[in-house]
Design goal:
- This protein has 423 residues and is an alpha/beta fold.
- Helix content is 37%, strand content 13%.
- It contains 13 helices and 16 strands.
- The protein has an eight-stranded mixed sheet with strand order 3-2-1-4-5-6-7-8, sandwiched between helices.
- Helix 10 (285-311) packs across helix 11 (340-349).
- The radius of gyration is 23 Å and the shape is elongated.
- The N and C termini lie far apart (56 Å).
Length: 423
């Protein structure tokens, strides 16, 4: 049967959307251009990397049982009422978002686009991408005109892996259409499985919502990361400072420091867009500075490791260092942008012998070499010269770890006060 929805791109954006839509009774087809990847998903085998921790094989089986179909046949895209492009847009070496996957998805869809279809983009993009990049590709490939023959809109993805309080149903969905009719078509679609839809003035405003939300997070984390270094130098307990500051009922929102910043919500500085080449807009200097601050944290954590080892009469060279939690956030296996890899690389370059533990990551490589996985985490902590908590997974008993570990550096401030060295 024809589907109501086609999700193009079955990664960290597309799979949660397909899950929410299927659960709401929306007939959904997921498209992946790789036949092998599509076959793996049909067999219940989830892709590794960015999809780790998003769904379980049981979740996928429930989706299939609920009517979710997975295909590598692009002809399926011409039989739907709504198509959502969820292609990845990673940062390249030049710190620019790579839109090639969005372009490929758009060309595939355009060749089969029918009149009256609603086309939505959820990928993280620069303001102006929907109108200046996506629209021409769709119109040229289909011969149809956006806003007249088909609806076109942007909606920033707000999925937060591992968040048990907020999911697609109770997280407001921002949408911005090319025309008022486009916005209403998008609102009608998302309203089928989302409690609240927020209408932006247009696609640029909706795209800029994502820029603001992501940069807000990075800038505030950078501030508290700088405070962590500042307070350590002063001999001040930052975690107590934050605990007290967050009691203020207005004008303050609490953030916590850490060993770095990871995830798919990369900071976006419009200085890297074509707008700058046309002399439009200004660079976001706060974003540039925040990225520098957060980018220094893995080096700072490594320095703290070597200083602690020296303080206890040990050298980093030859020391056994156990790293706990290598994903970018608690209780997920996704390693996208995780600072753990850079910290591990720096420790290895200093001659340390590494092992790691993560309940969600069964294999881990650094500098092309596999890192030994600790099966018995508390026994390994007792053997290691230094244990470093990089990510606080729910399964970790930090009281027990503090008792077992010879030396514990807690970069998340999760251990009881006085039981570990904190960032």
């Amino acid at each position: 049967m024809p589907a109501d929805l086609a999700v193009i791109g079955l990664g960290h954006l597309g799979l949660p959307l397909a899950q929410a839509a299927t659960a709401a009774g929306v007939r959904t087809v997921g498209y992946d251009p790789d036949p092998r990847a599509a076959e793996d998903l049909r067999a219940g085998r989830l892709p590794s990397g960015a999809c780790d921790g998003l769904l379980s094989p049981a979740d996928l089986r429930r989706m299939v049982a609920g009517g979710f179909r997975i295909t590598a046949d692009p002809a399926e895209l011409g039989r739907v009422r709504t198509a959502v492009i969820c292609a990845p847009t990673p940062l390249g070496d030049d710190r620019r978002l790579d839109l090639s996957a969005v372009g490929e998805a758009a060309r595939t869809l355009a060749a089969r686009l029918r009149p009256h279809t609603t086309v939505l983009l959820e990928s993280s993009v620069y303001p102006g991408t929907t109108e200046e990049f996506l629209r021409p590709v769709l119109e040229e490939g289909s011969g149809l005109r956006a806003g007249r023959d088909f609806h076109l809109a942007y909606s920033p993805c707000r999925h937060d892996p591992g968040n048990r309080a907020y999911g697609p149903a109770n997280t407001p969905k921002v949408i911005g259409g090319l025309t008022a009719a486009c916005t209403e078509a998008a609102a009608a679609f998302y309203g089928r499985f989302t409690e609240k839809v927020v209408r932006a003035r247009g696609p640029r405003e909706a795209e800029t919502v994502k820029v603001l939300e992501t940069n807000y997070r990075h800038i505030n984390i950078a501030l508290v990361n700088e405070m962590a270094v500042y307070c350590h130098d002063l001999g001040v307990d930052l975690w107590d400072v934050v605990r007290c500051a967050e009691t203020k009922p207005f004008g303050f929102q609490s953030f916590r420091p850490g060993p770095g910043v990871g995830g798919h919500g990369v900071p976006v500085d419009p200085d890297h867009t074509t707008y700058q080449q046309r002399g439009l807009g200004l660079p976001l200097r706060m974003v540039e500075l925040a990225q520098q601050v957060n980018g220094r944290m893995p080096r700072y954590v490594t320095q703290r490791c070597t200083a602690l080892l020296n303080e206890y009469g040990k050298s980093a060279r030859g020391a056994h260092v156990l790293l706990l939690g290598v994903g970018y956030k608690p209780d997920v296996a996704d390693e996208e942008g995780s600072p753990a890899r850079e910290i591990a690389s720096r420790l290895m370059e200093l001659g340390a012998r590494l092992s790691y533990h993560d309940p969600h990551v069964t294999r881990w490589q650094v500098l092309g070499r596999p890192v030994e996985r600790a099966d018995a985490v508390y026994e390994e902590a007792a053997d290691a010269d230094l244990t470093v908590l990089l990510q606080h997974h729910r399964t970790y008993d930090l009281q027990g770890l503090a008792v077992k570990a010879q030396l514990l550096l807690d970069t998340r401030g999760a251990s009881p006060a006085g039981t570990a060295h904190r960032l």
